[in-house]
Structures are given as C-alpha cells and as structure tokens.
Amino acid sequence: MSDTYIIEVSSQAAGIVVRDPGGYRFFAASHRFNPMEGQLFRNAREAERAAFQFAAQGSQTAVTP
C-alpha cells in the first residue's frame, strides 16, 4: 500500500494525501483546495470523495471528513 496519493478533480490536481500515524493528511496542489489543507482522512478514497464534494459545492469552507 502506497504512502502518498495524488487526488485529481476534473483531470486537475487538487492535492496529495500522505500517510501519517492518524490516517492520510491532505496537502493542496491548487489554491482552490487550500481550505482542505491539513485535513486528516481515514484513507485516500475518503479524501478523494471530500475533494469532489468540495469542488461541487464551490465552497470556501473545509469539508468535514
């Protein structure tokens, strides 16, 4: 199992998630996803779903995992 995953939304990099002791931490690759910066997710798939949800909402607030 990998320790780092790239999260893409609409074929553009949203960020990466890196495994840490509590799960996977999100690091934004685009200013659009800065509100998600530092959030911790149980797994990479959960982070991906949150990024898609965030993009769909067009929100400026972080998505709760």
Helix-strand topology string: EEEEH
What profile does the largest beta sheet have? Answer: 4 strands, antiparallel
- The assigned structural class equals alpha+beta
Kindly provide the radius of gyration, computed on alpha-carbon positions and rounded to a whole number of angstroms. 10 Å
In order across it, which strands form the biggest sheet?
1-2-3-4
Cα separation of the termini: 21 Å
Task: Describe, in plain words, how this protein is organized in 3D.
There is one protein chain. The chain is α+β, with helices and mostly antiparallel strands and 65 residues long. Helix content is 22%, strand content 35%. It has one helix and four strands. The mean pLDDT is 89.
Structural descriptors:
4-stranded antiparallel β-sheet; 22% helix; 65 residues; alpha+beta; single chain
In short:
The protein has 65 residues and is of the alpha+beta class.
List the helices and strands and how they pair.
Blueprint lengths: L3 E6 L2 E9 L2 E6 L11 E2 L2 H14 L8
Antiparallel strand pairs: 1-2, 2-3, 3-4
